[in-house]
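User: Can you recover a sequence for this backbone? Please restate the input before giving your answer.

Assistant: Of course. Working from this structure:
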């Protein structure tokens, strides 16, 4: 069963509340977002009112596309892949990542925080480097291993 059959769109959305706000004078804007929920990669067009509310959305083949667009507009999340330094290892760096996504706006903060980290070899895969960063409930974890030199 395809994504489309599992999560049918049903009716295309048109937010009546958003339309009201338009009549009160807010300016609409258009935005195009590629849905990354599945390999199909639908290009979804949205119309936003002046308050960031979705007035119209089309181009999504299934309802996951709407969920994706809503999350992208209200609270976009991303996984951070980066690396941290390793002391006394056979390699100077080990790859790390956040298994759970963090708010897109905090990516640079976490990337900066990793610059001061230096692990002592040996480093195991899946080792927690930072636990519950900034209370967001997201760990920074190694995705590779480094043996001692
Ligand atoms: S809307 Fe998103 S999840 Fe649904 S078919 Fe298109 S790309 Fe896949």
């Amino acid at each position: 069963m395809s994504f489309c059959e599992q999560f049918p769109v049903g009716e295309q959305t048109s937010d009546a509340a958003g339309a009201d706000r338009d009549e009160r004078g807010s300016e609409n804007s258009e935005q195009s977002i590629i849905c990354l929920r599945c390999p199909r990669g639908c290009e979804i067009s949205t119309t936003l009112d002046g308050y960031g509310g979705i007035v119209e959305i089309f181009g999504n083949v299934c309802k996951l596309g709407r969920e994706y667009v809503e999350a992208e507009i209200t609270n976009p999340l991303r996984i951070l892949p980066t690396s941290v330094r390793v002391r006394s290892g056979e390699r100077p760096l080990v790859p790390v990542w956040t298994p759970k996504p963090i708010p897109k706006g905090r990516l640079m903060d976490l990337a900066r925080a990793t610059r001061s980290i230096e692990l002592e070899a040996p480093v195991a895969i899946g080792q927690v480097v930072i636990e519950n960063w900034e209370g967001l409930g997201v760990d920074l974890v190694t995705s590779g291993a480094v043996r001692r030199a």
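That completes the design. The pocket of iron/sulfur cluster is lined by residues 3-4, 35, 37-38, 40-42, 60-62, 64-65, 68 (CB under 6 Å).
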